[in-house]
Design a protein that fits this description.
Elements (H helix, E strand, L loop, with lengths): L1 H13 L4 H22 L11 H24 L2 H8 L2 H12 L7 H19 L9 H23 L7 H19 L12 H26 L4 H5 L4 H14 L5 H21 L1
Length: about 280
């Protein structure tokens, strides 16, 4: 649910804080509460030397992913961004077939890929029929999804697979903040139309979405295996579309519903094949 809400909050804060600066500042400010949570959980923060290079690459990918995602919400709706961004398991499935031994295509995966790609095609092709929807924004969300999949693949095939998820997240937050904040100087004024409400929403992102969400995620992972958690990944775009409708009064039409249904059904089939 928090993942689905994330896009709505980013779009709202974009109206007051430049997207790339928002992304960098969010990563930077999230480092402290995440470290506190890690310490409370008694997790080891040691990083092996052979993990530094792949960790830097992941952090760079993470930063670029955020640039694409946050900018996409300046140009497109939360519904479009959610459907396209959370299609990540589709690209992960395709890359895994070629790069990870034992993760080959199955009949269920191929069926899931066909449905999801059909849904993505619908989402990309209907922007001309909706107001305040830009093809550029849709493409940026899709590129962010591809980078997210690339990060997961890199973790799986590199020495990072030996490190804890906490270390991976912290490394990505540190590296991405060092990239995003300097780059944000090239994207215009840092402040747009700031208000007390936007500041509160921004702080909510840091404390709840990143920090508490992070704590809950690892608590759940301690109870359920990751393969079971993946089965619920289709809920993220559903909640994203729902929150966009409830909070931002975005229109939900037959095209959005069709795209959402196809992508989510495809993700369910892909994840079912992995279980």
């Amino acid at each position: 649910m928090l993942l689905g809400l994330n896009q709505v909050l980013i779009k709202i804060v974009n109206s007051g804080i430049q997207p790339v600066f928002q992304a960098g500042l969010r990563s930077l400010l999230a480092i402290i509460p995440v470290i506190i949570i890690v310490k409370l959980l008694n997790r080891d923060l040691t990083l092996d030397r052979d993990c530094i290079f792949p960790g830097l690459i992941c952090g760079i990918f993470f930063g670029i992913e955020f640039i694409f995602l946050f900018l996409s919400l300046d140009y497109t709706s939360v519904a479009h961004s959610s459907i396209l961004f959370y299609s990540m398991p589709v690209w992960l499935c395709i890359a895994s077939h070629y790069l990870i031994p034992g993760e080959k295509f199955t009949i269920l995966k191929v069926a899931g890929l066909f449905l999801s790609v059909s849904g993505i095609f619908i989402a990309l092709s209907i922007n001309t029929y909706e107001q305040n929807i830009s093809f550029i924004g849709d493409i940026l969300a899709l590129l962010a999804s591809l980078l997210w999949a690339a990060i997961v693949i890199l973790v799986k095939i590199s020495s990072l697979r030996k490190t804890s998820p906490e270390i991976q997240l912290l490394f990505q937050l540190v590296v991405s903040s060092l990239i995003l904040i300097p780059i944000s100087f090239f994207f215009g004024d840092f402040i747009r139309d700031i208000s007390f409400e936007i500041i509160l929403i921004f702080l909510f992102q840091i404390i709840v979405i990143i920090s508490i969400g992070f704590l809950v995620w690892f608590w759940i992972l301690s109870i359920y295996p990751a393969s079971k958690m993946a089965s619920f990944s289709f809920l993220a775009p559903i909640f994203g579309v729902m929150f966009g409708w409830l909070i931002l009064d975005e229109q939900i039409n037959i095209y959005i519903l069709s795209s959402l249904f196809l992508v989510c059904t495809g993700i369910v089939l892909i994840n079912k094949s992995n279980n």
